[in-house]
Write a sequence for this structure.
């Protein structure tokens, strides 16, 4: 991954392949942002005019490359748009800096070193630029090029290539402006969070013939061992013995058997306990309620919630947060076959409730229900589940915003605010009681489907039924932002994004510091 470092050297005197500066939208055209004063001087005070001549406006994410003038050691100046210039005596928004750093790092793929002379007032800006650079530099090339050995295909598994033919990520990003203790801590945090978030992206991008429930569980076990996190894996035999009817029912049609993984990070000084629960459908065909062509090609991403939870627990452990964090990964593959769960079947869940399955493509709520009930037994202070759960949430909020539902309005508000502060667009959603009746079943305690209108809210209400009494709970439906089908933007790549991971880490940090309840 791209290396990060800090420097207080003059921007114009630093040896690098490129020098990144910020440009913002001013009232009368583009303006050069703070941090690039020496570069502006080297251009004779005309850098903004040169950029405008080249078509730059300072718009967010806009990238303009200019050959460096005499006096600047880096041969290239890359100007990246920051959006509207802040009002006098105001600082640049950290999310704008994060996105700008990401766009610049992606544009510099293949370069060995770049210096970032963006506005830095303190540690917050260092953290944002560091995160943006590392997240923007990300690329998934594991399956490109020829493999290390011949015999590439065995048991349905694809041998990984060497990434030949694809530019490597930016080698090193040097952030200019400060090297004090706070800046160094911010840089270290940004590197840890970005590394774990990129781990989640790798998992989401891995093809499903290489990432089934067993393989995902093995990856979690290896990482847990590396970072001192306790891990417990329940295989199919243990799930049967434990009565996990939801997870078993979803995985019944697949040759790849399901798993429930528990990751436990504890701190000796912790006063609070958080539980994160992730939906981990490693491939979702819809089961017997088969998805039509055009709706199943990217369904390897249906385990993004579990990837986010996994990465969040690892980040909490690596950061040494003074809070206990338990992660639950509910892993299954939803496939049609003669052994698959049928519409009309009734499953007895881990909680003891029975569920009539009206649609096998509403499977995520079934695996989550078992995991939520199991997580509740530990009596955590709060549970947050994360899932690519419903297309209805994408209809409501689009492809870049996740929905936040909860059984506690104050907790829902806190999560929404934490997400926004972390740079992750979110929106609080209600849990209307009148929608509960739509899940009535003549056969079982509850059905896995309800009214079509408000389907994302119905799913949240279903999950609420399996949360232990008196436990604060929230549900994040990340169906929209978990996988980017379009072109990269800011620090967001094409493919898996790691949505909601930074929100969970920030929640753990606030809980550890006592700022949350």
């Amino acid at each position: 991954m791209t290396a990060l470092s800090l420097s207080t050297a003059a921007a114009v005197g630093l040896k690098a392949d490129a020098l990144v500066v910020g440009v913002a939208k001013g009232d009368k055209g583009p303006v050069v942002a703070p941090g690039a004063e020496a570069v502006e001087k080297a251009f004779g005070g005309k850098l903004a005019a040169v950029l405008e001549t080249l078509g730059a406006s300072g718009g967010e994410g806009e990238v303009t490359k200019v050959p460096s003038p005499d006096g600047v050691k880096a041969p290239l100046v890359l100007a990246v748009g920051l959006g509207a210039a802040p009002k006098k005596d105001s600082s640049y928004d950290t999310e704008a800096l994060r996105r700008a750093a990401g766009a610049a790092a992606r544009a510099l793929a293949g370069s060995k070193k770049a210096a970032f002379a963006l506005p830095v007032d303190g540690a917050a800006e260092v953290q944002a630029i560091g995160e943006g650079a590392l997240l923007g530099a990300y690329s998934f090339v594991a399956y490109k090029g020829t493999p290390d050995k011949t015999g590439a295909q065995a048991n349905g598994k694809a041998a990984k290539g060497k990434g030949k033919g694809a530019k490597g990520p930016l080698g090193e990003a040097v952030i200019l402006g400060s090297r004090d203790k706070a800046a160094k801590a911010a840089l270290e945090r940004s590197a840890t969070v970005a590394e774990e978030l990129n781990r989640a992206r790798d998992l989401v991008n891995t093809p499903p013939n290489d990432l089934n429930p067993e393989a995902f569980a093995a990856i979690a076990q290896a990482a847990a061992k590396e970072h001192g996190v306790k891990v417990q894996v329940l295989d199919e035999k243990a799930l049967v013995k434990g009565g996990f009817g939801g997870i078993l029912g979803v995985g019944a049609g697949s040759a790849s058997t399901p798993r429930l993984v528990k990751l436990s990070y504890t701190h000796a000084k912790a006063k609070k306990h958080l539980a994160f629960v992730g939906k981990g459908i490693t491939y979702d065909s819809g089961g017997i309620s088969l998805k039509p062509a055009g709706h199943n090609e990217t369904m390897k991403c249906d385990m993004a919630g579990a990837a986010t939870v996994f990465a969040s627990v690892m980040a909490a452990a690596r950061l040494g947060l003074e809070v206990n964090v338990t992660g639950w990964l509910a892993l299954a593959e939803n496939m049609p076959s003669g052994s698959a769960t049928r519409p009309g079947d009734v499953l007895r869940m881990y909680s003891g409730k029975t569920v009539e399955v009206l649609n096998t493509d509403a499977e995520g709520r079934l695996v989550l229900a078992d995991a939520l009930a199991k997580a509740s037994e530990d009596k955590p202070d709060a549970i947050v589940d994360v899932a690519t759960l419903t297309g209805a949430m994408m209809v409501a909020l689009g492809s870049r915003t996740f929905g936040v539902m909860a059984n506690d309005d104050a907790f829902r508000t806190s999560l929404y605010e934490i997400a926004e502060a972390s740079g992750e667009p979110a929106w609080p959603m209600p849990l209307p009681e009148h929608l509960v009746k739509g899940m009535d079943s003549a056969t079982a305690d509850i059905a896995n489907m309800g009214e079509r209108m408000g389907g994302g809210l119905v799913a949240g209400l279903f999950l609420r039924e399996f949360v232990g009494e008196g436990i604060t709970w929230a549900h994040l439906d990340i169906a929209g932002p978990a996988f980017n089908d379009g072109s990269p933007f800011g620090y967001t790549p094409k493919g898996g994004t790691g949505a909601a991971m930074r929100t969970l880490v920030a929640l753990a940090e606030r809980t550890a510091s006592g700022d949350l309840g």
In short: The two ends are 36 Å apart (CA to CA). Residues 150-156 have pLDDT under 50 and may be disordered. The longest strand covers residues 273-284.
